[in-house]
Structures are given as C-alpha cells and as structure tokens.
Write a structure and sequence with these properties.
By secondary structure, the chain is mostly beta strands. The protein is built from no helices and six strands.
C-alpha cells in the first residue's frame, strides 16, 4: 500500500475533526481546520491517526483523518 505520509511527519489539518472520534489528551478544545499535528500511525481502514498539537507543540488530542484531509508541512 502506497501512503502519502510517513510516521511522525508534520501535517496541517484541512477540516474540523469529527468530535465522536477525538481522543483528548487533557483539556477538551475543539479541533479546527488549520491546526498542526503529526502522523501517529496508519490505521487498518486507511485513515491516519494524527496527534494534534497546540500552539506550544504539546499533544492536545488524537483523531483519525483521511489522506485528503491532511497537508504536509515543514517543521
């Protein structure tokens, strides 16, 4: 299976996360498009499990996203 992203690659989220599938690390803040994250793992269903980061680069939450919902960025 060819994948667009690799593990730990920084990405920008292009859509709001589905709140039903968000796993919050500590405080529950909305996951909005434009937030930064990094690829955690590739899920069996073809989606990417993304670690969403706050403004300080700390883990905020984890959520699944389709490949077309993510954009590669530089650190």
């Amino acid at each position: 299976m060819l994948t667009k992203f690799k593990r730990h690659q920084p990405v920008k989220i292009l859509r709001d996360a589905d709140t039903e599938y968000v796993e919050y690390y500590e405080d529950e803040r909305p996951i909005k498009k434009g937030m930064k994250g990094k690829i955690n793992i590739l899920l069996p269903n073809g989606k990417y499990h993304v670690e969403i980061l706050d403004e300080n680069g700390e883990a905020l939450a984890y959520a699944p996203f389709d490949e077309e919902d993510l954009e590669a960025i530089e650190n």
